[in-house]
Queue: 2 jobs
Job 1
Amino acid sequence: MASTAPARGMRDFLPADVRRRTYVIGVIRGVYERYGFEPLETPAVENIETLLGKYGDEGNQLIFKILKRGEHEASGQADLALRYDLTVPLSRVVAEHRGTLPKYFKRYQIQPVWRADRPARGRFREFYQCDVDATGSTSPVVEAELCAAACEAMQALGFSDAVLRLNHRAVLTGVLDVAGVPADKHGDALVALDKLDKIGLDGVKAEYETRGLRPEVADTVLGILGAAALSGVVAADNAAALDRVEAFVAGHAEAVAGIATMRTVLALAARTPAAHQLRVDLSLARGLSYYTGCIMEMTVPDLAGSLGGGGRYDGLVGMFLGQAVPAAGFSLGLERILVVMGERAMFPAHIAATAADVLIAQWNADTAGDALALAHTLRAGGLRVEVYPDADKLGKQFKYAAATGVPLVVVEGDDERAAGELTVKDLRTGEQQRVPRAQAGAYLKDLLTPVASGSL
RNA sequence: GUGGGUGUAGCUCAAGGGCAGAGCGCCGGACUGUGGCUCCGGAUGUUGGGGGUUCGAAUCCCCUCACCCACCCCA
């Protein structure tokens, strides 16, 4: 017999999982919509050329490829692939529909993506991303709004300790240039630097040596980037970090411009919900190769990886269109948010609710029709009603209700039928009451209404 | 992709060459109109899979697969 476990890195979502997921998605979508982002969905499958070459060498390897079908399958060649993120499909859509989309296209997209990665904690081969992106503008207002939306979404979910780290690709390049790191070693220098908060200053130095970078270069780079990276989430610290790096890269025009952009983004974001969550982190690098300007990453103390990330990618749409369209975006990682919220027990009680409020017990096979008719009446009154399908012993039926968390059970037996009444038992209190059939709906609703007296 | 660890009942885990077990859960009954509490009874299974050593393997060896941890990378 075949294994019944889902494929490696893939998951089934049972009812309780789906309730938590739809809750989080709903909160995030609500925030995104209040910022004026419009919904977009794109296919799970893209032509493989659309994806190749957009994510760097590492990314290319992690794309789930789909073999050619039919007689060409034996060739082992792939012509399609599952989407790797939502940013590249957006860029393709912007290029494809350039004539009909508005000048500034702000969209959100909450869909699964696939990566042929090795699964780990908070890391799966199929996972949802919650993206917001804005195309058509180079203004730092875009970055400020992205930061604000991401931070507000996290706040709405109940996170009070999320930090949004901010850096700029041109500033990183400038520091490395001025420090004398050859251009072909920039990647190595950034990968090592990105691990600063994990392995510490000495660890990064050691890694610089093994990657063939001169130790004194490491001291210089770390002196200017590393020290700043370890500062707190305070506006004064952010300003001081930028001042320090600006003095270092004084003659490097692109870096100076990048610093000015970061200052503007910080100043604008200070007027938004992101005000107290932004932290300049000059060691932030991010792996995706398409970023060109500001880069951002959302972190919390108790998860090693990030809960989301984003940045400006002014060159990506141009790869499909031949004509540059500026863009920037941010992506919240649903799975990791769920992992942390689960560990911290951050879900509100109401989403644990069961599917039904009322179970109608089945007396015998002949009364099944009556049970369905009663269910219809109660449902029309707004109650969530389940009918027990088999004429099992009442004990079993009550046990089923208790096991599935349905709080109320209705029994219409011979005695009740003769009297035109129903028996209603509240499993939470164990209390039981006979009520006239016509008043059952109101009585049930009354039981379900939380008692407000005393607590309000 | 690299290194280490763990795989035994639905779940959590014992047994470390000699009849595969416990707790919880599940099913049935005590209770033929009522869940939880109690008591009684029952079924748990190719010990992840394959091969080898042995009179005999859950146990020792080899291979393989899955999961966990640390790297690498990422949301």
Note: Residues 15-34 of chain A form the longest helix (20 residues).
Job 2
Amino acid sequence: MQTMRILQLHCDYIEFTPIRKEIKSAEEIDPAKMRLEEVVVAFVAVEEGDNSDVARRAIGEISQSMQKIGCNRLLLYPYAHLSSKLASPSTALSLIKEMQSLADGLEVHRAPFGWTKSYQLQVKGHPLAENSKTIMAGDEKESTSEALKAESKIQSYWHIMTPDGKMHDVGKFDFSKYKNLEVLAKYEAAKKRSVDEPPPHVKLMKKLAIADYEPASDAGNMRFFPNGRLIKSLIERYVTERVIEYGGFEVETPIMYDSHHPSMESYFNRFPARQYNVNSEGKHLFLRFAACFGQFLMAKDFHMSYKNLPLRLYELTRYSFRREQSGELVGLRRLRAFTMPDCHAMCKDMEQAKEEFRKRFDLSRSVIRGLGLDEADFEMAIRFTEEFYHENKALIEELVGKLGKPVLVEMWKERFFYFVLKWEFNYVDSLGKASALSTDQIDVENGKRYNIEFIDEENKPRFPIILHNSPSGAIERVMYVLLEKAAKDQKEGRKPSLPLWLAPTQVRVIPVRPEFMSFCEKLVDGLSQKDIRADLDDRNESVGKSIRDAETEWIRYIIVIGDKEVNAAKLSIRDRKSGTVKEWTADELVSEIKMETHGMPFFKLNMSRFVSKRPQIMV
RNA sequence: GCUUCGAUAGCUCAGCCUGGUAGAGCGUUACCUUGGUAAGGUAAAGGUCGCGGGAUCGAAUCCCGCUCGAAGCUCCA
């Protein structure tokens, strides 16, 4: 929650002397003693997320109360100690200056910002002399509290549903064969989640030069090195291709929206305010936290008949932004800026929505498998209102039956969210943290909210039912899962690796002596022309060292080139997966790789093909 | 916000308890080595030990304050 905190005191006098600068960005002023009499002193703490709007209303409230007590002189006194969630000094200073300039008809003074000051004041003894105010940021005030209030009223009933459609009490279910499901159930139902070590993928993402924290940005905004960018691009492309195959139409929508747009204002009632805010030319904008609004606003402007439905709009949002609390940001698991494939399907009625919902359930499962993730690593949770369950038991039982293992059920007495049914796949990592990946929802509310209409069979306008699906979940989170899986392999004594289609380098060529370099280059070129990511270790290192380095980079195929290979058709190809050296021709290697990466997207090597030319990114 | 941990070479870290103005490995550079499936050798360059203060003849090391970072908690419709 964002507020500006103000302690207001009506004083006979105040005297203050700036002593020394407390922060670097303190104002440059002449540190002279200052005395004011018959003055209202407003101690002001500007908090995170405060904006011009807050400043305007704060000064409004102050001048209103000053009128009541008949005082016309105001001292704005920056006072950080009123809050624990301070805004940055530059924001705070500019907002306090803004308050000063907005105070029409008052004599306003301002104590210097960023200085330790000694002060003395005498407060008057009348009832209105002391007053504290908390100014909330505009729309968020009501929406946040309303959303949170309503949220706390939700009554959830937790169960386990087995593939035969039977519901079991969570407390009595035998989890002995379903350890991860037990973790998820505890995680969700009991909200118990205590861990004291960093997740293993954080080390791996740095070591493999995939991604890193960017200290110059906000927390949770990562930078991706060439390797990471390549992996991300490939996953993005894969998911996009699969959604288009299913029937989605790819669109692109803005990343920021006007909070005062009528559709947004009511949408905010459904969300606790946790977005980045941007002020521009008097507009209060926020960065999107999902692709929903963009696609809804687009669909609203479409002329649609029932014959056009289901209409599937898809966007891969780079980025969506959610200002999660700093403490909950860990590696790639949870970010403030993330890439989210988001596909909405507008359906003409519940029958069509259910049919579409089934399709997308299959799509999501297949995408997850395609990404190299095993369904055994996932636990499904399905959530619905009691009413929906009684009317649509068959659908729910069908989905659970299809998955073929018990799932966690959350049933709500009443509908609070915009959806009546939702499922998601959760990955449970080695530390017992559960993270959602794929998800789909049946939304019965936003068609109307966004005034999306279609003309039905009777030539009447109607609002569609909207499905919200992310077949893979956030791309960064997919990377997190792949790395966590690899870390688990490593811990259990297996070789960690990425799927071959995602490997930044698929084939490394190592010459025994520099004289074989040109042969190696030709080999690398030949492989590259066949759309294989191959590179050449041209450093002056021993063969042993070069192989070791290739191993630590998790490179699948290593080809050592010496006299033998230059003079024969066969190559010595080390396959990291089996740990054996194979005698193959280049063509045999190509078809082997093609077979394993069949149907997956390809991008060219995203680094110099000469290892010696690469900057060192991490140890 | 709370709890814990950390800040020393480009990177990863040791040294701190028991004070005597800096060490290793990796990386980089040069030279030697011409190698056959997980680390060839030698050498060089490279650091106001996060900032400020205190006690001490003397501080990376002890004490106090601060800043920044990380992880965990809270949170995660």
Note: The radius of gyration of chain A is 30 Å.
